[in-house]
Design brief:
540 residues; alpha/beta; Immunoglobulin-like; 8-stranded parallel sheet; 18 strands; globular; binds alpha-D-glucopyranose
Length: 540
């Protein structure tokens, strides 16, 4: 049962925490989270008796940026925006994190830059500028029509007319986020230089933003249409995503990572492309690809199980799964599922995420069951939220300030936070939950500890026990030495799980439960109370 230290690989066996920097902790009272604030709160993550004890943090973009898409519009890949700190702060972060055995993953936004990036300023300045071909420029179609029918993810057409240089340029997000031309080797070299820059400074891995959009078909043909809600979803992205050139580009990126020891990568897939997303994961590709399918599930054991089974079937042996429940682009899962029992449901969801095969990514605040913040229209700052209101209210509700304690603004800042603090923060915060043995936070801490110490939970195979139950999701994780049985009651009614002969013949210890009344199985049956999440380990 003891963690085998020799064999422990941080990104495969550990838990990764998504620190959305702007909202994590503000050290200088400007209302915006920053690197010194993050450093001051590392104990929450690792290195103190009260820590969650995660293995790595992924930090959202901190590069200089006009901030039109909150840092995902980068104006310099090799520096830090002064609002977030400095390169010296970054070096201190690496030092402080590594001292605690905590790794640091950065966000690489390589599909596009800001329109204020010096590369784009030059590219736009004239048609014969040497950087013209660093972006994707095209003449109008006859009749002065845009070059094709492509749509941006954020609403408007993806080709924007530039008066200054009298051509269209491509942008898959805001028009201030022009897409780079990955077919130009100079672009590719400049981006790979940035990768080495951060690796040389001690970065342990990267999250690749919308990586499967990097290449576009060279002729930019029209995409075929399909059914969907927003304009981007009403096209099949056969020409603007998943182009064959992706694989060699990822192989080059991977070979750079492999020059360093124990580095990792995780890709954020965009859109419904025509390549199986899992094909980008493997020995000469990325280490992991996010699976976002949980975010589309309703709260039902069968829905969640189907996602896991499909992902398990589609990943090759060289691929390592990774799951998320929430992130900075999605609604927080406790708001999605929590209803009248947010804490109980948060525990069931946590027990699922942290016992599946694959690396769990936690989104800051989920460890205290932080919900979305309700915002009025005039409080929305996220561009797609402004554009689509009220059909879609944008991503701000899931990006509220971290709730540290009951002091003003939840201990996040001393001035006005960039987004409003959730009104419940006085009750729901890290300090209060540390004091309560039955809190969501303490449940996360126990789950992470259990996972760390159990070979079966980290490495074991995955086998389901329930197939279409309306109440229970249950599965076995198994290594030759150990079995873990996970039993999750998704409902507010008591439930029963029957054990087959093989499972019945084993001796089970209750390793952890969300219910103080839980007990080891007696006979062939496991009784589960309302919203009970229990994990049993076999004992020899
Ligand atoms: C990714 C990011 C999102 C950003 C977009 C454009 O989806 O997660 O926050 O707006 O890419 O960079």
């Amino acid at each position: 049962m003891d963690r085998n230290v020799e064999d422990y690989l941080w990104w495969r066996d550990g838990v990764i925490y998504h620190a959305y920097l702007r909202s994590f902790a503000d050290s200088n009272g400007d209302g915006l989270g920053d690197l010194p604030g993050l450093i001051a709160h590392l104990d929450h993550l690792k290195g103190s008796p009260d820590s969650l004890d995660v293995d790595a943090i992924w930090i959202s973009p901190f590069y200089p940026s006009p901030d039109k898409d909150f840092g995902y519009d980068v104006a310099n890949y090799c520096d830090i925006d002064p609002r977030y700190g400095s390169l010296a702060d970054f070096d201190r972060l690496i030092h402080e994190a590594h001292k605690r055995d905590l790794r640091v993953i950065l966000d690489l936004v390589f599909n596009h830059t800001s329109d204020q990036h010096p590369w784009f300023l030059q590219s736009r300045s004239s048609r014969d500028n040497p950087k013209r071909d660093w972006y994707i420029w095209r003449d109008p179609r006859p009749g002065n029509r845009p070059p094709n029918n492509w749509q941006s993810v954020f609403g408007v057409k993806a080709l924007e007319w530039d008066d200054q240089s009298q051509q269209y340029y491509l942008h898959h997000f805001l028009k201030v986020q022009p897409d780079l031309n990955w077919r130009n080797p100079e672009v590719r070299n400049a981006l790979m230089k940035a990768v080495r820059f951060w690796l040389d400074r001690g970065t342990d891995g990267f999250r690749l933003d919308v990586f499967n959009l990097w290449f576009k078909h060279p002729d930019l043909p029209d995409n075929p249409r399909c059914l969907g809600i927003r304009p981007f979803e009403r096209q099949r992205h056969i020409y603007d995503a998943d182009q064959p050139e992706m694989r060699p580009a990822l192989a080059e990126f991977r070979s750079i990572l492999d020059d360093y020891s124990e580095r990792t990568s995780v890709g954020e897939p965009a859109g419904r492309g025509h390549q199986p997303i899992s094909s980008y994961c493997g020995q000469d590709q990325l280490h992991m690809i996010f699976n976002f399918k949980f975010s589309f599930c309703h709260w039902s054991p069968t829905a969640f199980l189907n996602v896991v089974r499909r992902w398990e079937q589609s990943l090759s042996n060289n691929c390592w799964p990774c799951f998320v429940l929430s992130n900075h682009d999605l609604s927080r899962h406790v708001t999605r599922y929590g209803g009248r029992n947010p804490d109980a449901i948060a525990k069931v969801a946590a027990a699922l995420l942290l016992t599946l095969r694959g690396t769990p990514f936690l989104y800051y605040g989920e460890e205290i069951a932080m919900p979305n913040t309700r915002l009025r229209r005039n409080q929305i700052v996220d561009p797609p939220g402004i554009y689509y209101w009220p059909i879609y209210k944008g991503r701000d509700p899931a990006r509220g300030p971290m709730q540290w304690d009951a002091s003003i603004h939840a201990g996040f800042t001393t001035s006005t936070p960039w987004l409003p603090t959730h009104p419940d923060y006085r009750k729901q915060n890290v300090a209060a939950q540390l004091e309560d043995p039955y809190s969501v936070l303490n449940f996360y801490r126990s789950l992470i500890r259990l996972r760390r110490n159990s070979d079966a939970l980290r490495k074991g195979s995955f086998r389901t026990l329930t197939k279409t139950s309306r109440q229970i999701l249950s599965f076995i994780r198994e290594t030759p030495q150990q079995q873990a049985l996970v039993a999750l009651n998704f409902t507010g009614r008591p439930a029963h799980l029957q054990l087959d002969d093989m499972l019945h013949s084993l001796n089970w210890d209750l390793a952890l439960s969300s219910s103080p009344q839980a007990a080891a199985p007696r006979g062939r049956e496991i009784k589960l109370g309302p919203y009970e999440a229990s994990i049993f380990l076999s004992v020899n």
